[in-house]
Structures
1.
Amino acid sequence: MVEMMIDEIILSEVPAIPGLTLRGFRGEPDYANILAVIDGSKDADQIERSDTLEDVAWYYTHLNNCDPFRDMLFVEVEDKVVGYTRVEWFVNGDGEWLGFNLAFLLPEWRRKGLGRAMLRFNERRLCEIAAGQIDDGTLDLDTPRSFETYADEGEAGKAALFLAEGYDAVRYGFSMLRPLSEPVEVTPLPAGIEVRPAQPEHYRTIWEAAEEAFRDHWSAVPGTDTDYERFLSDSTFDPGLWKVGWEGDQVAGSVLNFVNAEENEEYERQRGYTEGISVRRPWRKRGLATALLTRSLKMFQEMGMTEAALDVDSQNLSGALRLYERVGFRKMKQSTTYRKAVHLS
């Protein structure tokens, strides 16, 4: 094993691979490298995604709490990028500081020690960020702090690495699918609620209502203006597909449906996503979520979609998983969130 230095950060336990170099982010020229690593990894990890170069550029111009020039690491072998990492941090609604980290590594370069070195780089960088925030007074020393990351069902090697490095599995999410060949029973709206088309002057109100509803979810992170800008500029943003329930001038709940055309083309399917399902507290337990969701399914059915999909926190205390199962969704895949306490020296 050898040691390598990047921007005065020494990485230990880096494997002695001929032609291996580690470097930081170089800006826009690295977008193509990021996309190549994502595309080169997704089949091995059984992850369906259809990112474009425009998608990568869009994402990296809407980062929260991440300076890519300091918070990323690129792994090259003979001047070809074979992997990269990125970190960011959040304070969730429970007051916990979370240092999120992710890494992508091409399959042919796995099981060589690179993944462990990349993970430890991420942890070191997040420790530096947390320590700096404590020093400048923006983070209290007693604030609970954790590293956080995740692995999808097909990423067995990544999951094994997290467990070996002291992470615990703390939460499970399901990706769910609903065939639209099956009948859809549209349930009635609660009294006083009506569904109206989303108008541009209401986008912010609808987004804020969903943000308010999601604050009750596990480890929810409050949205920012950057998040709203990202929401508006997402390539799948299509308010014409939303189902928004109003009572007077108040948003009671919504389903922010979308279709990912590039993904449907790549995987030769017709799928609609019933995501962003939310109901604000005063309107819960009245059947509103079911009414909006079944209207969404019917809409996709009439559009010629053959299936609908969504992601859910399997341990959601609101009973979301049971609701989705009742209207015909079934578990397709599982993802796991991992955490490890941050100890600053």
Note: The two ends are 24 Å apart (CA to CA).
2.
Amino acid sequence: MTSFKTWQVRAYNTAAESENKIHDDRVARRYGYKSALVPGVTVFSYLTHPAVVTWGEDWLDRGYAKIALKQPFYDDERVQVEPKADGPSSYTCELKNPQGEVCASGTAAVRDLPESPSLRNDPPAPEAWEKPRATRETLERLRKEGLGAVRVPWRGEAPGDRYTRVLDDMPSLVRTDQRAFAHPGFVLSLANRALMANVTLGPWIHVESEIQNFSRLALGRTVIIESAVADLFESNGHEFADLEVRMFLKEGPPLMTAKHRVIYLLRES
């Protein structure tokens, strides 16, 4: 059975300039947080870092992972990544803040691929339009009508090319200075792009994801993202959306499938 080492990293707010202002100190404090939140897809990269280190290209091509984000990490905060083997090709993992609190947890594995998804050829989301506000009514309508597809090229541009401030702290397999492949958090971030292309959002939070890799994303390749609203619900004053997301390499194989949960409308503190 594979053994895994504990890994430490300084949390990096890769979305400080994002249109999602939950990654801005002033706005995050308005919602009761200490400061800007480190993106959930970046935290996902920390959870799957041991998978890339241990299984390399095999994980990029057929890796599985699941993460639940329980409370935020803040920029430059120490993150303790504690993977524990629970099978010959899998581990469970807890991510702890400096106070020892578990802020996120999940699993990662290499496994036989499930049936490959097929491209539906969904109509594209308009590139220049006045998007509707993300309300329950709007998302219920889009649940029936469908979300527009999105195309995103991967050019390896900062800060999306990294999940640490220093590229040397990432495995060479997913470092742009090595002309390698997109790291897991960037690929998962395309699920966020799909939602953002179809509705106008205020501050919002990614809280859970379950993914299956089918292939790796090389520099210069374009990804087609097709998505659908699977469920909508309210909890503790927050409005949640569950998305089903399928990504494909343009003129190529499937890239990733993801079940992606977000709070699209936050309760103000």
Note: The first helix runs from residue 25 to 30.
3.
Amino acid sequence: MHTFSSAFSQSDFFGKLIFLSLFILSFISWMTLLYKIWVMQEVKKHASKVLLLLEKQKGHFLSTPLEAFHIKALKEIPQPFSKILSVIKNKTGELLEKNHFFIEELGRGSSVYLSRADIDLIETHLSTTIMSQKELLEKNLFILSTITTLAPFIGLLGTVWGILMTFSGLQASGNFASNTLILGGLSTALATTVLGLLIAIPSLVAYNFLRQKIKSFTCQMEDFAHLLLSSVEIQYRKVDLK
């Protein structure tokens, strides 16, 4: 840190702006990383609680009110499993009610079933829900990828500026250029490059780590949705025995 503070103090006004920009990027990068890790941990905790409550229902989740699966959480925390459960309950209920209405109108018995088209419709809604929840999990993740690309370029700008200032000072001073002038420009050039890389490398690792975590959790959402859909299909799909 002493090296960076020394280079910062020896740089000119524009050089200081470059340093400040890199410091701000570093702060934003770490805050975004910590926030996203916290969000993912909270989402996983919520998912585990939903699975636990669902296990207690022993396959009767359709007849159980949604309030039984309500788990308190902060507003900014996505709740993918609760959302998936809500969608499949609501859509299944709507389709069963519609089919029951037509059965009563046609006088064809009292048993209510879901057709293949009904199952496909529920599956489509589930896929849309999973994609929307995935987008919520990826919210603000672009900040890390942007910083990964931007930080080295700002560091390179500081490098070019430091070298430019060094040669400008040498040209202006001629043979009487001091070592302080030369070392000041070179320290600015090298320090900004190092700082830019020190920001970009952790941001890149964090971005790839979070992307992999979200991809893995998306697979869990799909498995959860397929589990619920299979339960609905077994219970309500009409099977023609010939």
Note: The chain has one domain: 2-236.
